[in-house]
Structures are given as C-alpha cells and as structure tokens.
Design a protein that fits this description.
There is one protein chain. The protein is 5% helix and 48% strand. It contains nine helices and 60 strands. The longest helix is centred in the middle third of the chain and has 9 residues. It is globular and about 110 Å long. It starts with 13 loop residues before the first strand and ends with a strand.
C-alpha cells in the first residue's frame, strides 16, 4: 500500500451545495500549483465552482503540487480559487471542463501581495491541448454557436467541424465516411455517423441517419469526434456527435425567444422560380430547484412552423402550400440523495407533421405527407466511491417515419428514349408526362431502441509508475423495426411503362443506353424470365409468342429480340413493360439485438500517455416470425494511442493512434432478410397481353434474402499521426494525418449469376459467371453446400474496399481581448470500388459492377478533395457582437452514369469478354472522373445584448446567410442521358439566395 498515493477524489475536504457526484457525462482537470520559481506548492486549497454546474469541489494539492479533480459537469465558466500559506490568493475564470477529458492546467502563485499567473488559458471555445488524449474532434457549447451565424440545430453545428462535408439534410460525411449513394445519385448524406442526445443513442437503426431533434438552446456541450476514438465509443467510421444538455441548479434561470424569416427577407432566386414562405421558431426554457441542494429540474418547449408555396421547376406554375409543424419538448430531473449518489431522469420528444414535399420537381399527384418523430426516455444512476465511479442507465428511443400518398391512383413511371442512340427516337417528355398517377403507397414505419448499460471508472495513482485510469462497460441494445406498407390504386401495383411513342423497341434496345427514367429490368433478369416461363401455367402462350425458331424452348436471344407493343389496360395508355404487384399486405416487425463490452486503460507517466483498449460487439438479427436470421459473433476492435508532451509543460503534444471500428449491420438488412410475414410483391414483365411474374419479393415461401453463414461485420482500420500546441495565451494549432482502410463490405448477391456450378465459360449467358472464371464464387464462399432457397443472399462483397488518407490543419483562438476565431484546411484522398454501406445495392446483382471488374476502382464519388473553413467573432464592450463563418470546397466528385432501377450506375459500354465473363463492363474514366464546381459561402451575424439587471438580458440578432448572394452550383446531373429537367453536367441544386434571419431572446 505504501506504493500507492491517495486518489485525488479522496482528498476533497469540502463541498458547496452537493457532494462529489459522478455522472456519465462529466469531465475533470489535472491542476498543478507552482511557486514563482516554478517549484510545486503542496497543501494548497483549490476550490472549483461554476454557475452552470451542479458540482462545486474543494481539494488539496499533493506533495508534488498537483491534484486531479474529477466528476465535474461540462461548462465553460468555471472559477478556480487557490489559497496557500505564504502566497497571494489566486483566481482564474472562464476555465473550461469538457466531458470525458482531463486536461492539465498549471497556475503560478505570487508571493505576498503579488498577482499569480495562469500558464494554460481556456475560453468559451475550448482550445487547450489535452496532452493525455489522441482523440481528434471539436467541442462546441451554446456560447460559441450563439456567437456565430449557424442554423439552430445540433446538425447545423456539425458544419463548424474541420473536414465535415456539406449536407443539406443534416447527415454529413466526415473523412472516409461514404458521401454518395447510387440511389438517385444523391450526394451529401452519410450513414456512418453516431448521434447521441442526452445520453440516448438516437441514430436511426434502419437508415444510419439522425433519428431525433431537440431544442438547440438546451445544449450545454456538443462533442464531435472524428478520429482516434477510444474503445468506450461505438462507431468511428463516421463522426460521433454527443450532445449534453443543461441541468437545473439552486437558482431559477430560463429564457424566452422568437425567431422568424419569410420570403421578403430573401434575395431573388436566380435558378428556380421563387417560392413564398414564412417560418418561425419560438421556445421557452426554465430550470431551478425543487428541493434546494437535492432536487433540480430543467425543461424546455420549442415550437417551429413553416409555410412554403411550391412552384413547379420547369413551368413556374403554383403547385401547393406545404405546412411543417415541429414541437420539441424536454424535461430533466436531477436528484442528489447523498453526497455520493446522483439519479437523473430525462424525457424529450419531437413530433413533426409535414403536409407535403417542397421539392419543385415533385408534382401534386406524386406528393406525400409525412408524420415523424417520437418520445425518448432515460434514467441514470451514478455513484462515487472515492477513486471508483460507477454508472448505470436505461433508455428507450422511439421514432416514426411514415408517409402517405396525396393521390391514391396507380403510380406509373414513363421512361422514354430521346437521344441520338435511340432506335426509335421521340421528343423529350415533360415531368408531368413521365410521372403519371399517384405516389404509389402509404407507409407506416417505426424504428425503436431499448438499451441498458453499466460502466465503471477507477483511478490509480502510484508513487513511481504514473497514473492509470481504467474504464470498463457493458451494454445491451434491442433495435426494433416495424413497417406496414399498402400499395394504392385499383390495380394494387406500381408500373414502369415505355412511352407510347417508343412502342416497338426490343428488350435489348430497352436495356441499352439513351433512355431517360429509371428502368427496373436489366439483362440479369433474363434467366429469371426464362425460368418463370417454363414454370408458368401460360407456358404455351409465352413460348408461342417468343420461340421464333420453333424449337420448343425460349432462349436468351429470343428474350432480347422481343418487342414491347401492348398498351392493354395500362393506367395511362403507355406501353406495358414492368409492374410490381402487391399480392399480400400485412404489418411486420424485425429486430436486431446487440451486446457490447469495452475495457481500456489510460496510463500516464510524466510526459507520456498510453491509452490501450478493446471493444467487443455481438449482434443477433431476428426475422418477422421471431426466429434468428443471423448471428454476428463477438468481434474485437482494439484501439491504441500514444501521446507525448515533448516539453512537459502541458502546452504541446505529438500523438499516434491505431484502431479498428466495426460497422454493425443495420435493421434495413434485418428487414431485407427477415420479412417472412409482411407484404409480398410480385415483379412482372409484360409479354404480349399477359403479365409474367418472374420474381416474388417477401414472404416465407421463397424469402427475398438470407444472411449467408460466412458474412463478416464490415470494419474500418484507422492510423493517425498528429501534433498540437498552444501558442501564447489563446492560440492552438494542430496538424493531423489520417489513413483508413474499409473492408468486409456488405452486399446482396444473386447466386444465379455468381455461383451456378452447371455453367461453363463456353455456355454461360451474358452477365453470368461460370466455374473457372475470375468472378465465379462457389456456394462455399457464402458458407453453403448448395443453393439456398432465396432470391438473394447477404454476404461479404468479394474484393470490396475503400481507401482513404487525408491531412487536416486547424487553428483556434480562444475568446480573449473581446474576440475569438478559428479555421481549418482539409485534404481528402478517397478511392475505392464500392459505395455499399449496409444496404442492398446493385453490386452482387450485376457482374459488370463487381468490385474486381475493370475500371471499378477509382476516386470515390461524393468525395471533396479540398475544404477550408474559418470563423470569427468580435464582442464590443457596448453589447454589440459581430461574427462571420466562411466555408469553401473544391466541389464533389461524381461519375458518368445511367439510370437503372432508381439508381445512377456508372456508364457502361458494349459487352465483351473479361475474366471468362461476357458483360457490359464499366467504361474507363466513368468512376469519380467528374468534379462539380467549387463554391464558397460567407455568413455573418450581428447581435446586440441589452442588460436589464445582473441576471437578466435581452438579445436581438440578425443572421445574413450567403452575404454575397453567390448562388453557386452545389450538385450536378450525373446521368449522361440527362433527365426530364436537367442535362448531363448541368446544375441540379444551388446555394440558397442571400437570406436574413431575425430573432430576439430574453434570458433570466
């Protein structure tokens, strides 16, 4: 026992109004007190307090002049008072405490009546160097974001973080996070992030995007982690956003605010017909004591509304007025029954209704209303036992995303060929001519999560071997996905038809190039069509129709030669081609249950800190009948970082990190491989005057998909090197190099194309792999001995990979001398051969798109090579504040594509033989070869604060977004054939016109 020194917690000798309670989201400080000569001062009394915190602590320094203070609530306005015999009393203000961090601060006392000196200074935006951590991220608080022109949401605040890419929907990519989807060719949405609100993981288990909203004024702190993430955190392939909310205290405090904007405050739109709109945002917050020193509350209610007049993009015709209403509630109770125990209970919800779509290209007949949001509950218990902190929690997250068709008639998408390569060429159709009927279906969907967990932290300080902070935890999470979809229209089907003017085109011509619109049939469907004909009760009819050589069998060339002509009973009078018919409609539920455990040790010896940890995860998926559909056994994700303080003054560090992040399979794949009792859809092709079902989706007779036994959990390996240092009192600069490798990517496979052992290279049809070819995958690759009974199997994508390396340079200037600033530059080099990210895309269904295929590996679509960001704010003594935010990027990469089944797929050429397979392989230079224009934005804010009393004030502000009114292109059309609205390479989206946002807030 003589080798052990006392824990810093055990030397606490006094508390203000509460005990040394530990909470899950607390931080700490490592304080060193020195004399004017730099010698340690033992026995100094240090008091740490903050009006924003529930915790006040008084501690005494050890023989080496240091003391570790833990269990502090996150805040930026801590006051540190130091009293030591023979020295002047020292006070430091505006000291920041960040959850999960324990930075060093050193204070030099003055003898007699002199004035002490703070060696490390912090401010409202935390800029000190934490010489014990290799985690790369940004810490934001309400004081910072309210000083800058930003959107009023935690999603908007992410844009202040270095390297985070633009995202209109609030789900931005970071570093190697996927920023592009083949579905619709969409750029700007990542499904790799983790979103935590008040300790509740609100990440949508189905989509991987954020699943809840909150009132931004209740945010105490928001941490955004982008690299070097320790084992205690899930995720890591994207960013981790962790929001900590405010709590009550012994004094009542709150606010009332109102913000508004309308079209009168917006400049003329240079690209689209301007839409009239008005929006408001009002909120109230209140916190205080229920029982002083024991029980506190904090609550808020926010109501937001927006009315938007939508006009058609190609005609300027008024379409509809869309109303959106958001109601965001929050309540937190904090109970301190003893000095060592804390219980917190919180509730928040975000019910939202949206009457329709604000997209100008969405016609009224294709409009949908949306109902979304849900309730969230959490209870948490923490206990401090000297050098040991224990925590246990349970939460429930509920979320609904349902939509309902405004027009209940049958959906009919009309595709047409108007290009020079068309065998039958017609004039381009308008959006209205190609979008017949209603939206197609009503969908009610919920995605809920129940989680329980426990964690512990133990601090050990030795006499000569440094300090250890051990952390361990375990959690169990159950994710439930419910869906009830109903196809609308009397036919109970959705159609894709050929325009009547293109009647007479052959199957080969239809699956070729030059078409506008998404085609749900391709060459890979020919074997299914032939099999369906041979098993059909109408086999004689189809054989007589298609068997041109009269040998009694329908062959691949005969399918390709078939001409589409029939318009019989087509809802719209177009040429029958394809439809998806609802054979059964029923609600269903699938589940995914995960367990995770972690163990890590942060060892600090003088100037060296080593953090070694491991995270283990296991996931079990269940189908809609409650049976296990897949089990991903325990996987270990080791994480190791080394941090060195080269000078030993706590002002600089060099670090390295090496770790693995797993990306668990989401419930969208539980759904794909687990819908055994829900809807059943029959995919049909029009042949003559009859419809032939060539594939059935859903149901237990032939499941749509199965998890193959050999499927691995996708993972990303990360290596980082970095350096950071303080310059002067207020500045911090850093440089980081990151290298990442993503492997074991998940995809769905059509085994009829990849694994048919009866084929030979000589007899295999176009687009199929035979044994001996470069693309053949035997059943054993998927863990089978024979072909399973399913349309598809989910498996590890052979050869799939993404590679990333990047450099990040950043600086920060803390608020001092009435101003603060920051900025960053990021270089991103991302390459790969797949965009798949826990979804069922076309790789695995079309060999020409195989990751191992020619020209598949290249620059990642959606990547932005260069980004620069800067912000600054000046605070005048008369209450006026001026600030600005600047963002520039070099433009996102995109591919040359064509449309197929609602996807933008890389451009292909004529079929040829490669690796023993004949297919229409990707053309050279198709992948990621194009770059959208670069653009920048400059936003500014002017705010005036009028103080009524010491604790009351009124604030008025105006934000001007896009001050210079640069309505630059942000996205372009990647379809080589273009669309009904845009040609290839034309802009499809732009920076919004200059707009003003006005508001006022009363705070007490």
């Amino acid at each position: 026992m003589t080798a052990l020194r006392r824990s810093a917690v055990s030397v606490a000798i006094g508390m203000c109004f509460m005990g040394a309670a530990w909470a899950a989201e607390t931080g700490g400080l490592r304080i060193s007190i020195v004399s004017p000569q730099g010698k340690p001062v033992a026995g100094a009394t240090v008091k740490i307090s903050s009006p924003s915190s529930l915790v006040t602590k008084t501690v005494v320094t050890e023989a080496d002049g240091s003391v570790r203070v833990a269990g502090l609530d996150p805040a930026t306005d801590y006051k540190i008072e130091v009293v030591a015999p023979g020295f002047s009393t020292f006070n430091a203000t505006d000291v920041s405490v960040v959850s999960g961090a324990n930075p060093s601060v050193t204070y030099s006392l003055a003898s007699g009546g002199g004035e002490g000196q703070r060696v490390v200074v912090t401010g409202s935006r935390v800029v000190q160097v934490d010489t014990t951590s290799a985690t790369v991220g940004t810490i934001l608080n309400l004081a910072t974001v309210e000083a800058l022109p930003t959107g009023r949401s935690y999603q908007s605040y992410l844009q202040l973080v270095p390297g985070v890419k633009p995202s209109a929907g609030g789900n931005p990519a970071s570093k190697s996070g996927v920023n592009y989807s083949d579905i619709g060719g969409a750029t700007g949405t990542s499904t790799d992030n983790v979103y935590i609100l008040d300790g509740v993981d609100v990440t949508d288990s189905n989509t991987g995007t954020f699943g809840s909203n909150i009132n931004s004024e209740i945010i105490q702190e928001q941490q955004i982690l982008t690299g070097g993430i320790p084992a205690e955190y899930a995720g890591g392939t994207g960013l981790v956003s962790k929001v900590i909310t405010k709590s009550g205290g012994n004094e009542f405090h709150g606010s009332v605010n109102y913000y508004f904007q309308n079209d009168k405050l917006v400049a003329d739109n240079k690209h689209n017909t301007a839409s009239a709109f008005s929006t408001y945002d009002s909120a109230v917050t209140l916190g205080g004591p229920i029982i002083k020193d024991q029980l506190w509350f904090f609550g808020s209610f926010q109501k937001k509304g927006r009315d938007t007049d939508v006009v058609q993009s190609d005609t300027g015709e008024f379409l509809r007025t869309v109303k959106r209403d958001d109601k965001l509630g929050f309540l937190k109770l904090t109970w301190q029954p003893t000095d060592n125990d804390r219980i917190t209970a919180s509730f928040f919800n975000d019910p939202t209704t949206i009457s329709g779509s604000t997209t100008p290209s969405t016609l009224n007949n294709r409009d949908r209303s949306t109902k979304q949001g849900g309730d969230n509950y959490k209870v948490e218990y923490s206990r401090d036992m000297e050098n040991l902190r224990l925590n246990a929690y349970a939460f429930r997250h509920e979320s609904e995303v349902s939509n309902f068709a405004a027009d209940k008639s049958t959906l009919n998408n009309v595709v047409y060929c108007a290009g020079a390569a068309c065998a039958i060429r017609i004039p381009a159709l308008s959006i209205a001519q190609s979008s017949l009927g209603g939206a197609g279906s009503d969908v009610v969907s919920t995605r809920n999560r129940d989680e329980i967990g426990a964690s512990g932290e133990y601090f050990l300080e030795t006499a000569s071997a440094g300090t250890h902070t051990f952390k361990a935890g375990f959690l169990k999470s159950e994710n439930e996905y419910f869906r009830d979809s109903r196809v609308s229209g009397p036919e109970k089907a959705t159609y894709t038809s050929i325009a009547s003017g293109n009647a007479g085109v052959t199957f080969t011509q239809f699956i070729g190039g030059g078409w506008t619109g998404s085609k749900p049939i391709s060459a890979v469907d020919i074997p299914r069509i032939i099999t369906a004909i041979n098993g059909s009760p109408d086999k004689a009819y189809f054989t007589n129709l298609l068997d041109t050589n009269k040998d009694g069998a329908v062959t691949d060339p005969e399918i390709r030669a078939y001409q589409f002509n029939s318009t019989a009973a087509n809802p719209g009078g177009q040429v029958n081609t394809y439809r998806s018919r609802e054979a059964q409609a029923a609600p269903y539920v699938v589940k995914a249950t995960g367990k995770a455990a972690y163990l890590q040790d942060t060892w600090t010896l003088k100037q060296l800190t080593v953090n070694a940890g491991v995270r283990a995860e296991e996931w079990v998926h269940k189908d809609s009948k409650g049976a296990q559909s897949a089990k991903f056994k325990w996987e270990l994700a080791p994480r190791l970082s080394v941090v060195y303080d080269p000078v030993g003054d706590g002002r600089s560090k060099v670090w390295g990190f090496l770790g693995r992040y797993y990306d668990p399979i989401r419930t969208n794949m539980s759904d794909f491989a687990g819908n055994l009792s829900g809807p059943v859809l029959e995919e049909q092709i029009a042949l003559g005057d009859k419809w032939l079902t060539f594939r059935t989706r859903g149901g237990d007779k032939t499941p749509d998909a199965l998890f193959s036994p050999s499927t691995k959990t996708p993972h990303t390996d990360e290596f980082m090197l970095g350096y950071a240092m303080n310059i002067g009192k207020d500045w911090t600069v850093s440089a980081t190099y990151t290298k990442r490798r993503t492997r074991d990517v998940l995809e769905d496979y059509d085994l009829g194309l990849y694994s048919d052992p009866t084929l030979t290279i000589a007899t295999a049809p176009e687009g199929a792999a035979a044994p001996g070819s470069a693309y053949y995958l035997p059943y054993s690759y998927f863990g089978y001995s024979s072909k399973p009974n399913s349309n598809y199997v989910l498996g590890t994508l052979a050869g799939g990979k993404r590679d990333y390396q990047g450099i990040e340079l950043s600086f920060s200037k803390a608020k001092r001398d009435n101003w603060m600033a920051g900025g960053s530059y990021t270089y991103n080099d991302a390459k790969g051969n797949t965009n798949s990210d826990s979804n069922a895309d076309f790789q695995g269904d079309w060999i020409a798109l195989d990751p191992r295929a020619p020209n598949a590996y290249g620059p990642q679509p959606g990547n932005i090579k260069h980004q620069a960001k800067a912000y600054g704010a000046y605070f005048f003594d008369n209450g006026l504040e001026l600030s600005g935010v600047f963002n520039w990027n070099s433009g996102s990469l995109y591919s040359r594509t064509f449309g197929s089944s609602s996807r933008n797929l890389p451009e292909m050429g004529d079929a040829y033989l490669n690796g023993g397979v004949v297919d229409t392989w990707i053309l050279p230079g198709a992948i990621g070869s194009q770059t959208a224009p670069s653009y920048y934005t400059l936003d500014v804010r002017a705010k005036y604060i009028y103080k009524l009393t010491a604790s009351q004030k009124i604030e008025f502000f105006v934000d001007i977004f896009n001050l210079l009114d640069k309505q630059s292109v942000t996205a372009v059309q990647s379809l080589v054939a273009g669309s009904a609205a845009f040609k290839f390479g034309e802009g499809t989206d732009w920076v919004q016109p200059r707009r003003l946002y006005l508001g006022a807030r009363y705070t007490f």
